Amino acid sequence: MDISEMAGLSIIDCHTHFGGEDLDAIDAMLEQEAASGIEQMTVLISSFPGRVNANPEGLYAKARHPERIYLFAGLDYSAIAKDVDHRWTYSLAQQIDRLAAMGCDGIKMLNGKPNYRQSSGLALDCVIYDDYFARLEERGFPVLWHVNDPEEFWNPEEAPEWAKGPGWLYDETSPSKESIYQECERVLAKHPKLKIIFAHFYFLSDDLPRAAALLDRYSNVSFDLAPGIEMLHNFAKRVEEARDFFVKYQDRIAFGTDFGPGGLDSRLWVVRNFLETDEEFHVPTDERLFWPDHRAMIRGIALPEEVLRKIYAENFRRQVSPAPRPLNRELVLAELDRLTVLQDALGAKPNAARRVAVRLAGESNSEGDWSTPYLGRAL
User: In this predicted model, what pLDDT tens digit does every residue of 234-245 receive, in sequence order?
Assistant: First the structure.
């Protein structure tokens, strides 16, 4: 089905990425999403041990489009580094309070992706995270958490070609998929009220009974639908079972695409076509993280409109916020100032925090004037 023929419903893309040197790319992303019927999107900032984060770019995007962008910020892992001046860092738990006060809408975590889990040496239930998870649970601050990867990434004969370049092939030296699940689920058992959206359907699209058991056990857990194209293939192997799952758990699933700068409209179309039609269709061949693909055709599950309404927007608004939270200008500029110092100390080039602070100093928007320079180290 052509995108123009699809349901005219309110849609939030809960899983997009933005960063890099081209700050103006956020405008093109929003235009592409709007052309696919998506009115708001959540920018996720990836961070992991060994770097600061790309929060400056995310804060810029939210400041530029305050009514259309939710921001799930990344953690500043310099808090647990040994080679930085800790007068400029905050504990992981303190960062939750600061990011919430700034107007961020949630946290993105990538530490459960197997290559980052391995390189960091930090188990997901490591004591380093104890106070952090406790603070998240206490505040009810939402997290979108990437935990694990597709099963075939542990099998070089089945892994897609596009997974090999980024280092997403795992072997016996890597943490196993099951060990990572066990670490994560110990976190959930210790903090059962955590408000979690697991990215990419928690990579359980091929095990719907286990997915159902997790949702039944933890009432604040949801899944997003950002592909991993293996997810749609797995659903297509059992269309009726998948459709029944989506109908039963219609309050626990959020629309997402993993869209980013320079992305293609086909990525947005493929998830919508799967949800809205019962068409049989092939993976788009222009999408580099979908193709080449040797598997069978995908068949859609043609969900009822009342289910689509929830998956497209209502679930996310209920779990996160009815609208993007407004930014606190002074706190944002102070954070850019702090990150400028850290990025200079870590030798980050270019210094994204300084670049964003300078850019904001020359702009204003409907949420308030950013044009008065912040008199700190950022400028």
Answer: 999 999 999 999
The number of domains in the chain is 1
Instruction: Convert the pLDDT of each residue in 196-239 to its tens digit.
Output: 999 999 999 999 999 999 999 999 999 999 999 999 999 999 99
- Does residue 78 lie in a domain region? yes
Distances (CA, A) of 53 to 189, 259, 272, 348: 28, 19, 31, 11
β-pairing, 364-365 with 368-369? antiparallel
Q: What's the CATH code of the domain at 131?
A: 3.20.20.140
Task: Quote the tokens at residue 138.
Answer: 């206490």
Q: Which residues contact 226 (CB under 8 A, 6 or more apart)?
A: 14, 15, 199, 200, 256, 257, 258, 271
What's the CA gap between 37 and 199, in Å, rounded? 22
My answer on whether omega of the bond before 284 falls inside 30° of 0, hence cis, is no
Q: Extract the tokens encoding 168.
A: 């997403």
Whether 312 contacts 255, CB under 8 Å = yes
Helix ranges (DSSP H) in 262-304: 265-276
Q: What domain range includes position 318? A: 8-369
Evaluate whether 144 touches 75 at the Cβ level (below 8 Å): no
How many whole angstroms separate alpha carbon 329 and alpha carbon 103? 9
Q: Determine the Cα–Cα distance for residues 298 and 291; give it in Å rounded to an integer.
A: 13
Is residue 215 in some structural domain? yes
Looking at the domain assignment, is residue 286 inside a domain? yes
CA atoms within 13 A on the CB side of 1: 19
Report the 10 Å Cβ neighbour count for 127: 8
What phi-psi label fits residue 41: left (phi over 0), alpha (psi between -120 and 50 degrees) or beta? beta
Determine the distance from the C-alpha atom of residue 224 to the mean position of all C-alpha atoms in its chain, rounded to a whole number. Answer: 9
Give the span between the Cα atoms of 59 and 62, in whole angstroms.
5
Tell whether 1 is covered by a domain. no
Q: What is the CA radius of gyration of the chain?
A: 20
Nearest to 61 by CA among 70, 53, 48: 70
Beta bridge partners of 44: 17, 72
pTM of the model: 0.94
Residue with tokens 């998929």: 177
Tokens representing 108? 């993105």
